[in-house]
Design goal:
The protein has 177 residues and is mainly alpha-helical. The chain has one domain. The protein is 51% helix and 9% strand. It is built from 9 helices and 3 strands, in the order ααβααβαβαααα. It has a 3-stranded mixed beta sheet. Helix 3 packs antiparallel against helix 4. It is globular.
């Protein structure tokens, strides 16, 4: 294994272990809606606020997909056994159906929650190769053509952070081979 692969493997193991540890000790999974106030309240008081949503997870779905990219069969199997029955896996996609909406421009102007759709109740296959096939069958829409062609890809990250927009699967699925 190369040093980068080892680092990424250890990082994935750490994240999955920490999520599992917090779930087993505090009965809490990652908050779905980035509601920092609810997370702080839950952490400080130990009591679940009504607006803390952890029955669904986009983060775990991203982690499963990263395990496909890194071809980590054993960690995929362990994480699947650990979490897939206790959380509804979800992923978000840009809603590019309306031709009057310039999605790329809007990403740099505001939060995009009203311009995306969520795929939910995603069932993980037992085998990582079957999951890879499932992911490869999904189409990936591109919406950053002008930003990419101008050489300003880093601005996408700044926009996501500033407006708290989701990172869509096309950003990492292009690495699934």
């Amino acid at each position: 294994m190369k040093q980068d692969e080892i680092l990424l493997y250890n990082y994935n193991v750490s994240i999955i272990d920490y999520i599992g540890l917090i779930h087993s000790q505090r009965k809490r999974l990652p908050e779905l809606n980035n509601n920092i106030q609810a997370l702080i309240e839950f952490t400080a008081s130990g009591e679940r606020p009504f607006d803390y949503a952890d029955s669904s997870s986009m983060l775990l779905m991203i982690l499963y997909e990263l395990l496909v990219i890194t071809k980590n069969k054993q960690l995929y199997k362990n994480a699947r056994e650990r979490f897939s029955s206790i959380v509804d896996l979800q992923t978000s996609y840009p809603n590019l159906q309306d031709p009057t909406v310039d999605f790329e421009l809007l990403m740099f102007e505001k939060n995009m929650n009203d311009y995306m759709y969520i795929e939910s109740s995603i069932k993980l296959p037992k085998d990582i190769e079957d999951f890879k096939k499932l992911l490869m069958e999904k189409s990936i829409d591109t919406y950053y053509d002008r930003t990419h062609k101008a050489g300003f890809d880093f601005l996408k990250t700044l926009s996501r952070i500033y407006y708290q927009n989701d990172i869509f699967p096309n950003e990492w699925r292009k690495f699934i081979a």
